[in-house]
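Figure S4 source data
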Amino acid sequence: MDILVLGDKRRATELMLRIPKLHQVTHSTKINDASLPRYNIIFDLNFDDDSNNLQYYSYLRNKLIVVGAVKTQLADAVFNFHGQVKCNLIGMNTLPSFINRDLLELSILSDEILELVESLSQTLNWPYKLVTDRVGMVTPRVIMMIINEACYTLQEGTAEIKDIDKAMKLGTNYPHGPFEWADMIGIKEVYETLDALYRDTKDERYKICPLLKTHYLKKKGFY
């Protein structure tokens, strides 16, 4: 099976390590629309940042296109496209460090492609959980909210970064503290996911802490 992976090196590497070696995998950072029809599956890890890429896939009838869709709702992307989308679109949580989790989060536009999702899972040996097509999916919503709340705690001077991380790991048995998680995911992704969540829900839980915004503007991690 021929598979195309579009995206930055870090996430592409995470993804390609999960693909069984019996498949032919090509990595590219840019779309070459002329070559797209030859691939059986296309993974677009850049879709969250540029859903206009849909213009290159829409005409690929029945082609399986798996896109990063944490900051973007599939239904919204298709609605804004103003065209008939003939490909089979699957959303995936492709945030850095989430791709190599045991259970992948996937979303779809309709139940009509459930068999394709199951076929993808069996072909690549990927356990998955189907979640509602909404901004933030499930795991990112929870983790981003935790990171944001931790930033408020740090901003108020209640505790230091290392103490907050240690307390969260010991108290909740999380694999990482919120600031460790933020650096693993990347400040840019954390900020933009929270921003997308707040715009989608207007829920105060996702209103970005000023301290987190400052780190985003300075492109600065916590460690």
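Figure S5 source data
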Amino acid sequence: MKVVVAIDSLKGSLSSLEAGSAIRAGIFRVYPDANVIVKPLADGGEGTTEALVQGLGGDVIPVSVHGPMRGTVEAIYGFLPEKKLAILEMAMAAGITLVQNDEKNPWDATTYGVGEMILDAIGRGCRDFIIGIGGSATNDAGLGMLTALGFEFKDASGKSVGITPKSLRKIVTVHTENVPPDLKDCKFNVACDVNNPLFGENGATYIYGSQKGVTPEDRAVLDNDIRHFASVTAAATGRDFSAFPGAGAAGGLGFAFLSYLQATLSPGIDLILDAVELEKDLAGADFAVTGEGRLDHQTAMGKAPIGVAKLAKNHGAKVIALAGSVTEDARACNENGLDAYFPILQGVSTLEEAMDKDTAARNMENTAEQVFRLIHAME
């Protein structure tokens, strides 16, 4: 029997590989000679760096960079030297969790630290990048990141503007003389799970600005400033990505990647599954086991377990999902590739007890064992 295990982390409890290892142990209780392959899984958001570094054997690189409000923050990224690959989460440098509610100021928040992380990775020899851009505190259309990377944005008098949204309206020209030559050799694969354009009623500012502190009074002003930046960018690059799906992601950071770094924007789960080469391992598999902390109707809308299920079905494998908890509307997952799913709780407990690492691992292992005992009994 061949089983491929690719389960997302149970946030606050088990990492992807810890959950997968527990499932493998449960399967071995029933099928000690089974070929069980455990792969890391994430969706491009929080935990992606940890999952891929652990699963692919890379290093964690610490780096001090500017945070969203320009104070120093300690970030990390994944580094796989043999692949010249860096795995970044923009939220490490410009995430909304780095800003207290009373500190939110979208006019001053910057993505400068994201550019600093990229430069550090380039200095280590990285030329391929996987970058998750969810959870931003910024609405600067990537101005800060691009400035850190050497792009210069100047006003009508020829002076360089700043690195925050306050500077967007001042930009008249774009200069690339100080961009590192190595940057043109870099390939950026950006995990992006939204389809918003850069500006307008469905754009970055109108849809996501309020959670970053944009007031109703400032919304139109900031949106117009970003529209101006898009116009200058189109004139400078000869390309206009302002209406491209995902351009409005992370306060317009998607637009910056598309326009200046020739990036590819893809659903996070697609990028990760490709990076871990899951489809290669699924060839000839009898079963795929996936899951996440909470299985619900949102899972069915394309989250990590459904990505695994779609690939597994291409190879004729049955798909089983295990989760910390499931909701009644999780039945939608059955219509999207999951043949069956099971909660792992073994008895009545508090949330704190259920999320205890040892308890969760034991519950995961025991549930996997019982599922595969049923499979064995049906043979």
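The chain has two domains: 2-41+277-377, 58-268. The chain has a mean pLDDT of 94.
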